[in-house]
């Protein structure tokens, strides 16, 4: 028998990493049939597991009806006793790929909102139809193994983990589920707008079924590619452990690896993962851009991509964060609790430790975590630790009180603070 929405959600929740009983949970709801079904199922699951559930809607400001749709979602959430927030995006300047820009903005807005509430697990309403359309679009763009693996059900990204519990269920199944229960949803007219690639792919799928290229077969292709992807990720992780070196905030890779990027999947995979890890970017650069970058650096030219600067140094390539791409300062109190570690710039966890430092005192008031920078490096009384280049320290985390440097754990002046990379680069490679 096909899986029900309730069974699909329960299965995902059982496999979500780092989830404590009763931990808060969020669900993204646009108002469409897929996300409304997920909202109702998640509300029931949350009540049964004593997990606080919050819902969020992003109004992209692109349609006048979007505000009313968000209000309708809020009304349904109120009837379910689920707190709801509407986030607004106003970043569209009329240039580039609208759907891609809106998708990235939506994820960033939701991640920041969830992190502010101490929520580390977010549910999304993507379906089997979305998966088939994604594979078709990526096939048209000439994607490799990773692209054709489609969307993953569970993904690690700020503020913690994102899950797509309905990825094995069709849109029709979810709408039937809503109709049987007399539950409504909102039809977004942009879902019929042929200016968008996804809408054209949806219509093309109906025609391609006559040739045997069905949604089911596209999803099966994604399953095959995902297994191949897992094997390649394991190998790339092994190479990362053997060959990559971390120096402060920088990562170093052997030049020979970049020279193999055009012919070896593992080399290209490591380079993409390195840019994502150093640059705090969850989106992998296009393959052609990666190859151009690799060729430039192997030839001895400095290059930039995805918020990172790459420079050849003998047999090594140094990957460093561009200063303009660093994350802004954040409060040194995570979720209002001084005893919790503070995450900054995606991969750094800072906390207080050592004798004479009470993690629950008021000493964190007004303190912020941000990049050490050149000014912090100059203000650090310890100087540069042996074996480290000054530029490798500038993108490391430091603790500030206004413009006064309070601590620089990686620069040999911890003052009771610790800083650790999480995840370590090889672990990031495995999950990238």
Provide a descriptive summary of the structure in words.
With 432 residues, the chain is α+β, with helices and mostly antiparallel strands. It has three domains: 5-142 and 149-214, Rossmann fold (3-Layer(aba) Sandwich), CATH 3.40.50.620; 244-324; 327-423, no CATH class. It is 41% helix and 18% strand. It contains 15 helices and 18 strands. It has helices at residues 5-15, 33-48, 65-79, 98-116, 128-140, 145-148, 171-180, 197-208, 215-243, 255-259, 265-279, 287-298, 373-379, 390-393, 425-431; strands at residues 25-28, 53-59, 84-88, 121-123, 154-157, 160-163, 245-247, 250-254, 303-305, 308-313, 316-321, 330-331, 342-344, 348-352, 368-371, 397-401, 404-407, 417-421. It has a six-stranded mixed β-sheet, with helices on both faces. A five-stranded antiparallel β-sheet has the order 7-8-11-10-9. A four-stranded antiparallel β-sheet has the order 12-15-16-17, with helices on one face. Strand 16 and strand 17 form a beta hairpin. The longest helix has 29 residues, at 215-243. The radius of gyration is 23 Å and the shape is globular. Residues 355-362 have low confidence and may be disordered.
């Amino acid at each position: 028998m096909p899986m029900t929405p309730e069974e699909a959600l329960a299965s995902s929740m059982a496999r979500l990493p780092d989830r404590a009983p009763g931990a808060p949970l969020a669900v993204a709801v646009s108002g469409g049939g897929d996300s409304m079904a997920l909202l109702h199922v998640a509300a029931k699951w949350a009540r049964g597991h004593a997990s606080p559930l919050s819902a969020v809607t992003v109004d992209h400001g692109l349609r006048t009806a979007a505000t009313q749709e968000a209000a309708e979602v809020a009304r349904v959430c109120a009837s379910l006793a689920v707190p709801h927030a509407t986030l607004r995006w106003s970043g569209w300047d009329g240039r580039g790929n609208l759907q891609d820009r809106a998708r990235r903005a939506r994820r960033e807005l939701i991640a920041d909102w969830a992190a502010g509430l101490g929520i580390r697990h977010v549910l999304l309403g993507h379906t089997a139809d979305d998966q088939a359309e994604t594979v078709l679009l990526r096939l048209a763009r000439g994607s490799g193994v990773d692209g054709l693996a489609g969307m993953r059900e569970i993904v690690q990204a700020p503020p913690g983990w994102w899950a797509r519990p309905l990825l094995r269920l069709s849109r029709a199944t979810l709408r039937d589920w809503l109709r049987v229960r007399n539950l409504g949803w909102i039809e977004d007219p942009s879902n019929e707008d042929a200016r968008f690639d996804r809408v054209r792919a949806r219509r093309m799928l109906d025609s391609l079924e006559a040739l045997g290229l069905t949604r089911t077969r596209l999803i099966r292709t994604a399953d095959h590619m995902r297994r191949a992807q897992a094997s390649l990720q394991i190998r790339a992780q092994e190479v990362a452990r053997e060959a990559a070196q971390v120096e402060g905030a920088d990562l170093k890779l052997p030049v020979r690896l970049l020279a193999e990027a055009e012919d070896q999947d593992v080399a290209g995979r490591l380079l993409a993962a390195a840019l994502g890890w150093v640059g705090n970017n969850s989106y992998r650069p296009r393959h052609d851009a990666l190859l151009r970058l690799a060729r430039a650096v192997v030839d001895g030219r400095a290059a930039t991509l995805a918020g990172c600067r790459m420079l050849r140094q003998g047999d090594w390539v140094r990957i460093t964060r561009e200063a303009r791409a660093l994350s802004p300062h954040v409060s040194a109190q995570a979720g209002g609790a001084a005893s919790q570690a503070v995450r900054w710039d995606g991969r750094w966890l800072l906390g207080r430790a050592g004798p004479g430092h009470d993690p629950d005192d008021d000493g964190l008031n007004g303190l912020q975590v941000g990049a050490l920078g050149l000014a912090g490096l100059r203000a650090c009384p310890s100087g540069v630790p042996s074996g480290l280049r000054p530029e490798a320290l500038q993108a490391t985390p430091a603790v500030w009180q206004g413009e006064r440097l309070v601590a620089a754990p990686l620069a040999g002046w911890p003052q009771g603070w610790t800083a650790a990379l999480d995840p370590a680069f090889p672990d990031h490679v495995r999950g990238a």
